[in-house]
Amino acid sequence: MAKDMTLLWVTGSPPCWRVMIALEEKNLQGYNQKLLSFDKMEHKSQQVLDINPRGQIPTFKHGDNVINESYAACFYLESQFKSQGTKLIPDGPAEQALMYQRMFEGLTLYEKLSAVVFYEWSVPEGERHESALKRNKEALVTELKLWEGYLQKLGSGSYLAGPSFTLADVVVFPTVGMVFRFGLSPERYPKLGEYHNLLKERPSVKASWPPHWLENPKGQDTLKDI
After folding, report:
1. End-to-end CA distance of the chain
2. How far apart are CA 50 and CA 59, in angstroms?
3. Short-list 185, 198, 102, CA closest to 146
């Protein structure tokens, strides 16, 4: 079945990583894949545009079905392969409700993170202001404290929606991984650090770990003072 699937991706992109973790959890190894380069603008290539007219990554296709939004692709994989691999949507209403809540809050976390780490990349030089970056950093601190509190409430060794690994972890962990890649202090955010350490040892996460992070484990220090 995985041979009918194609994923076009870039290394270190949380949206791409979400889909790759989901594929691993559903035991769908062996899919067709192509690693692209943002620097070479390969996400705007005709190969991508033929499947994804937005020219964005990930680009995912299963047979004739195209699902390019990363959350949608993860939902699709769980729906189509329910009985295969890890069950990613819990049956219990309380855990399911928390899973959905954290999944979509994860989009806000990614947005707040991007507004800081990609500020210089996304804002033209003449439009950049220290006051704007300062506001973005303050918003990220507020957001990170929320997630620290969520994990504190659940207790040590918990996943985002409770005792089971769910779609919430599939889609949010890549952002958490990126936060620490950019230098967030685990001493300042111990529960997020504990969660990061728990999931980075999970087989699906290890199998899909961004290759350029493996080549250069050090990362950056953009968030060291956050």
Report:
1. 44
2. 10
3. 102
Q: Angle CA(78)–CA(84)–CA(88) in degrees, nearest 5?
A: 40
Position 78, amino acid = E
Return the CATH number of 2-81, one of 3.10.450.10, 3.40.50.80, 3.40.30.10, 3.40.50.2000.
3.40.30.10
% the chain with pLDDT above 70: 97
**Whether residue 222 has pLDDT greater than 80:** yes
194: tokens are 């504990």
Contact 16, 57 (CB under 8 A): yes
Long-range CB pairs of 38-46, under 8 A, 24+ apart, other chains included: 38/10, 43/8, 43/10
Token pair listed for 20:
């790759």
The domain spans of the chain are 2-81, 93-215
Quick one: 24 exposed, middle or buried, by C-beta within 10 A (0-12, 13-18, 19+)? buried
pTM as predicted: 0.94
Backbone angles phi, psi at 35, to 5 degrees: -85, 125
According to the model, what pLDDT value does residue 40 have?
Answer: 82
Q: What is the pLDDT of residues 80-93, one digit of tens each?
A: 999 999 999 999 99
Q: What is the pLDDT of residue 176?
A: 98
Q: pLDDT tens digits, residue range 98-124?
A: 999 999 999 999 999 999 988 666 666
pLDDT (0 to 100) of residue 197: 97
**Which CATH architecture best describes the domain 93-215?**
Up-down Bundle (1.20)
